[in-house]
Amino acid sequence: MLVTLSRKREHMKGIIESKKSLKKAVVMVFAEMSVCIPAFGVSVSERTAYEAADTAGRNLQEFEVVSERVRREVTSTAPLFNLTDERMKTMGVTDISDALHRLPGINIRDYGGAGGMKTVSVRGFGTTHTGVIYDGIVLSDCQSGKIDLSRYSLDNVGSLSLIVGDNSDIFVPAKASASAASIIISSMSVPGPMDSLWHVTGQMRFGSFGTYNPYFKVGKSLTPKFSFSVIGEYTHAKNDYPFTLENGKLVTRERRNNSMMNSWHGEINTRWRLTPASMLDAKVYYYDNNRQLPGPVILYNPVCHEKLRDRNFFGQLTYKNLSLSKFSFQGIAKFNWDASLYHDEDGKYPGGILDEDYFQREVYVSGSALYVPTDKLAFNYSADYFYNNLTTNQMEVVGPWRHSVLQSFTGKFQNSWLLATARLLWSIYDNGVKEGISSKDENKLSPSLSVSVQPMRNRLFFIRASYKNIFRMPTFNETYYFRMGSTSLKPEDTDQFNFGLTWQYNSTNWLNALVLTGDVYYNNVKDKIVALPTNMFIWTMTNMDKARAFGADVTASATFNIARRQSLVFAGNYSWQRVQPRTSPTDPDYNKQVAYTPIHSGAASLSWENPWVDVVVHTTGASDRYGTSSNLPITRIKGYMEMGAALIRSFKIKRNTIDLRFDLTNILDTQYEIVGNYPMPGRAWKFTVTYKYN
Fold first, then answer.
1. With contact defined as beta carbons under 8 Å apart, do 207 and 664 qualify?
2. Sign of dihedral through CA atoms 36, 37, 41, 42?
3. Which residue has the higher pLDDT, 29 or 222?
4. For residue 348, what are the contacts with CB-CB under 8 A and spacing of at least 6?
């Protein structure tokens, strides 16, 4: 097989024991298949390939596979960083915002507290260039192009990954390749086909500032072919955390107000194993968050009446056929509905009330075909169609809509020392409105290329380089928003270049594993969409800016065996980035640092794993930033470093497990801001009790 023969240090060294030699042979075939398919597949397909092998051997005796694991971060042709649920636990990660801080090159706009909106940009590209993939399907927001990650809890997340550019996974929908970078959220799967037991998880989390968060999950395999899981979660937080307000020499201690939130989400997941190599997954998801918006801190004006209700429903189907033949197929269908209801009360509005309602709908279908003619070559063709429309009372037009067709053709070559991937994406967009003037249609070809070389076959040392061109369509807000939108906008066009080195060292008696990665990059954005004033009161969207970014990302992780059943686990990352507007030397922001982008940022964690109580200490930080790209001193936002700690203990009695966890965040009670005038919480605690029956 490709992986086991060509990349000798990546292969699975299996010891498969079975009572019958025939069963042993069958298991070995499917074990090899489960290794080979991921070499050409996405992370989601990797899991299903393994699960297909499990299904085929469901009547066999249990077997054990002992492997020397090589991290995908090391072998990937483009920057890839992955956090599994176990790694996040070891690193003391507290929520999804904290998890994202542990990934290099990421800038988070966090408005503070449990209910604060959290959006992500990568390597200076901006939030709208960062795709978010949830269980294999790209999330959408045709209104603003920004995905609020605060709505996704880590309690059912199996892994969280960051991919910059296109890496070596080619069995993906075309839409998954249509962003400069992608955040991939993969939830925990449903029970396996041979698992007839009930799987029950009940969890209760309490925290500072009136936070409580119950969570439950129930799953079972009802037949050898059908399994399901049901998830429910509720979060309440008052979010009235204290902060220090400075006005010259006057320093007062205040509290955030109008910051309460109540949110809940539920989902049903099913898996139907049609054949040993094919399956049909279904997901129904609903989310509802009713929250107050505290607004920025303004001297002598603490009153705020803003409210926002977010509701999201989607249903999706994913069919996969991962056979032993040269062809594999994947089909996807999804319907998404999203509502944002904004309310504010202020004397400046007619009648003293402002209501802005936004309703989005999306229909999405996708098909992908993977062809593997030899053990060195693979090809994938993907075609996606999706339809978006928006209904709102805040647009210059009525009923904007967009038909989108994306097609990608990808080739991949791999031998014992070289891995190369090339992709061509063709994007077609058809825009229209029910009433008014619509933006123009667009179509474009976007190429990408990535290469990884292993110069020394007896060392897990790799050199990688990648290039990707991609463009971003203007969002409906940028095109049609009342007074600000412009239908003449052109898409943003981006080019990104990356060069990196990766190394994994396995292993000595005291050093179990050491992984180092380093990347330097250059990004260029043309026809950047910005808001410019047309007079004293009205701003409009226009293509004006050019921007460039260059920087470096470094990561390190290591596990040290210090005694029997005791180890120290270290993980850290550092990013340096310069992101500069480059439109005209006469502009006040020329060659300055783009707003809200720190030059230096990083995170680190150290965990002591032992038989008694696991102890984790961690820190995240960033240098000074500015609230405007002109870098005016008055808009300077001070840098910060936040420290936290966690104590974790598990008790197991037969099939029952009780996990106790205590987290203390911002131990030094540091006051800082990520978004200007939105103070982050000071010292806070969380206590989590989790019961599992497996």
1. no
2. negative
3. 222
4. none
Whether 460 and 504 have beta carbons less than 8 Å apart is answered as yes
Q: List residues bridging with 598 in a β-sheet.
A: none
Give residue-wise pLDDT tens across range 533-547: 654 455 678 887 789
Instruction: Using alpha carbons, select from 286, 145, 267 the residue that is nearest to residue 218.
Output: 267
Question: What would the pLDDT profile of 575-625 be if each residue is shown by its tens digit?
Answer: 999 999 988 888 888 999 998 999 999 999 999 999 999 999 999 999 999
Token pair 């032992």 is found at 610
Residue 222: burial class (beta carbons within 10 Å; 0-12, 13-18, 19+): exposed
Element (H, E) at 488: none
Question: In what helix (H) or strand (E) does residue 683 lie, and over which residues does it extend?
Answer: none
> Residue 114: pLDDT above 90?
no
Domains and CATH numbers, the chain: 21-693 (2.40.170.20)
Q: 463 with 441: CB under 8 angstroms? A: no
H or E, element range at 634: none
Return the closest-CA partner of residue 94 out of 690, 662, 614.
662
Helix (H, G, I), strand (E, B) or coil at 145: coil
The tens digit of pLDDT for each residue in 477-520 reads 889 887 788 888 999 999 999 999 999 998 778 888 899 999 99
3-state class of 22 per DSSP? Answer: helix
φ, ψ of residue 323 to 5 degrees: the values are -95, 175
Contact indicator for 156, 186 with CB cutoff of 8 Å? no
Of the chain, the percentage scoring pLDDT greater than 70 comes to 88
